Amino acid sequence: MAVPKRKTSKARRDKRRSAVWKLDTPAMSKCSNCGAFKAPHKVCKACGFYKGVKVLNLDEE
After folding, report:
1. Rounded CA gap, 29 and 42, in Å?
2. Largest CA distance in the chain
3. Which tens digit of pLDDT belongs to each residue from 5-14?
């Protein structure tokens, strides 16, 4: 079994532990048709458009 040759310092240990739990915010872009926020490279859930072409028929009631 491998055993460390030297003690890991508190700074080195805490530096490693600090970045593990952080998450990046998801990327969002505005729909070119309706202006709603959507994920990039995805169909807009508000209007059903993708790259200026209607690909989903959404019933607006």
Report:
1. 10
2. 69
3. 999 999 999 9
Name the residue ranges covered by the structural domains of the chain.
Answer: 26-56
pLDDT tens, position by position, 37-61: 999 999 999 999 999 899 988 875 4
Cα gap 42→50, rounded to integer Å: 7
C-alpha 13: how far from chain center: 27
Q: 17 vs 4, 35, 52, CA distance in Å? A: 18, 40, 45
The overall pTM is greater than 0.85: no
CA–CA distance, 29 with 48 (Å, rounded to integer):
15
- Close Cβ partners of 45 (under 8 Å, ≥ 6 residues apart): 36, 38
